[in-house]
Design brief:
The chain is of the alpha+beta class and 405 residues long. Helices cover 37% and strands 17% of the residues. A five-stranded mixed β-barrel has the order 1-2-3-5-4. Strands 6-7 form a two-stranded antiparallel ribbon. A two-stranded antiparallel ribbon has the order 8-9. It is globular and about 70 Å long. Bound molecules: fe (ii) ion (2 copies). Residues 165, 194-195, 276, 280, 354 line the site of one fe (ii) ion.
Length: 405
């Protein structure tokens, strides 16, 4: 077993261990000499690393996705651990235990596959049962579904993550379907198929990325193609039912700007979108807390999936904690608002975490209270403006100046 894992690193520890290279940059010091700026990882997380000296000797001997044995010192830099590398050597993958380096679902994959099959076998609608079984009985779907992540980085971004996401959604659908009196078989069909295109959209042999098909088509279009192929093998499948399933796949991102060409237009499609959003957001929140690299303070680093920092309730509730010392300032309690408002503090539905169009990297937000030029000391400090809000405000300003002009 590998030792130590990233999650076990301690400040001032001298470490000799093997890591997977997740990012590699060759940069220049002011003297013109090169140095290495890396992100090293294993299945428990990732750590930034710098090699200031002798970088020239090793920088061409390894690349991203290679394994390296490093010796270095763990330091704290800007509230995060950083490994200062003294020695680095590439190691062959045959010498490492691959399972130590790739994040994997904590659930048993065979158990989840059996769970999905039992959901499908309980369907009362024979056409939907036959369709879903055609997917589950496809050996290629079976083998890919056992390992595919649900996203490159936003939620369930680990091997088996897609299957875990589908199983979690299926449980939510079983509770919420009867509550709203919808067609449960249709809803569960949507749950099983909505992200099925991801088994071909994402590449997941080493670090996660997009396949060429994934880049060019996306998982909604790929899922439609898979659906078409399966329905061809079921000649008596009702044409109208097919249209409903196609709509659920196409609309599950919920909004046009997140890659859905149509908005969810009937109960099962609306519910599918909200279950998908809920499950992906809750997993993104769990991941933000688990992978947080800040060594102190009550806030995690910025979560692109949730577009915010997450409050470390665990640290806050420790008896010895003092919130004033961290620089976290709280605004006055908001006035009561009607349920479902979209102001600060409400769930943000602006982003679909698995949408590659919106899932690009985003610069880290400043930590701690935001200081705005001209803001009154001690006054209410608004949250950083989102890119979307900025675009919206600009569009409104342009419209306003046009109408004045
Ligand atoms: Fe999706
Ligand atoms: Fe999903």
């Amino acid at each position: 077993m590998k030792s130590p894992y990233v999650s076990e690193l301690q400040p001032s520890q001298v470490v000799t261990a093997v890591f997977l290279v997740q990012h590699k940059d060759i940069r220049q010091k002011k003297t013109g000499e090169p140095y290495l700026s890396l992100v090293l990882g294993d299945r428990t997380g990732e750590v930034e690393a710098k090699m200031w000296d002798n970088a020239e000797e090793v920088m061409d001997t390894f690349d991203r996705d290679d394994f390296v044995r490093v010796r270095g010192l763990v330091q704290i830099h800007q509230n995060r651990q950083q490994l200062m590398i003294q020695k680095l050597q590439r190691v062959d993958e045959s010498t490492v235990e691959l399972a130590d380096f790739f994040p994997t679902t904590r659930r048993d994959v065979g158990e989840m596959m059996a769970e999905l099959r039992s959901f499908v076998e309980s369907f009362r609608n024979p056409d939907l049962r036959a369709l879903c079984l055609a997917f589950l009985n496809d050996p290629d779907v079976d083998s890919r579904l056992r390992v595919a992540p649900a996203a490159k980085s936003m939620h369930h971004a680990y091997l088996g993550g897609l299957l875990e996401h589908i199983c979690s959604m299926a449980k939510l659908a079983q509770w919420l379907g009867p509550h709203y009196g919808v067609d449960e078989d249709l809803l569960l069909t949507g749950v099983l198929l909505h992200d099925m295109g991801k088994i071909y959209e994402l590449s997941y042999e080493r670090s996660f990325g997009y396949t060429a098909e994934g880049h060019l088509l996306g998982h909604l279009a790929i899922a439609l193609r898979m659906l078409d192929e399966k329905i061809r093998s079921l000649p008596s499948f009702p044409a109208k039912l097919r249209v409903l399933i196609e709509h659920m796949i196409l609309s599950h991102h919920g909004q046009l700007e997140f890659g859905s060409p149509k908005l969810p237009a009937f109960a099962e499609a609306v519910l599918l979108h909200h279950i998908d959003n809920l499950d992906s957001k809750m997993d993104a929140l769990r991941g933000a807390l688990e992978k947080d690299r800040n060594v102190e303070g009550f806030l995690t680093g910025f979560s692109p999936a949730l577009e915010r920092q997450i409050f470390r309730k665990d640290r806050y509730l420790q008896p010895e904690s003092k919130i004033e010392e961290t620089g976290v300032s709280l605004p006055p309690a908001p006035e009561a608002r009607p349920l479902g408002h979209t102001g600060a503090g409400s769930v943000n539905y602006r982003m679909t975490p698995d949408n590659p169009v919106t899932a690009g990297p985003r610069p880290a937000a400043p930590e701690g209270p935001v200081k705005l030029a001209g803001s009154r000391p001690g006054g209410f400090k608004p949250a950083p403006i989102s890119a979307f809000a900025e675009q919206l405000q600009k569009a409104l300003r342009d419209k306003d100046s046009q109408s004045k002009g």
